[in-house]
């Protein structure tokens, strides 16, 4: 589950919720999600 502004924004399995699109919309940052490593990296560090 992911919250935005105190409300449920996305709900699902751990592989489904923390997507690049969801994280950008929730936190306002561009990221790269590596599901095979279970890692999230800020786009500025790539």
List keywords for this structure.
single chain; 46 residues; alpha+beta; two-stranded antiparallel ribbon; two-stranded antiparallel sheet; 1 helix; 4 strands; 17% helix; ABC transporter ATP-binding protein
Structure description:
- This protein has 46 residues and is α+β, with helices and mostly antiparallel strands.
- The chain has one domain.
- The protein is 17% helix and 33% strand.
- It has one helix and four strands, in the order ββαββ.
- The protein has a two-stranded antiparallel sheet with strand order 1-2.
- The longest helix has 8 residues.
Strand and helix layout:
Layout: E1 2-4, E2 7-10, H1 20-27, E3 31-34, E4 39-42
Antiparallel strand pairs: 1-2, 3-4
Number of domains: 1
Structural class: alpha+beta
Question: Strand arrangement, largest sheet?
Answer: 1-2
What is the share of helical residues? 10-25%
Major β-sheet profile: 2 strands, antiparallel
What is the number of beta strands? 4
| Count of helix runs | 1
Distance between the termini: 27 Å
The H/E string reads: EEHEE
Kindly report the average pLDDT value: 90
Question: How large, in whole angstroms, is the Cα Rg?
Answer: 11 Å
Strand content: 25-35%
* 3D shape: flat
Instruction: List low-confidence stretches.
Output: none
Organism: Thermofilum adornatum
Protein name: ABC transporter ATP-binding protein
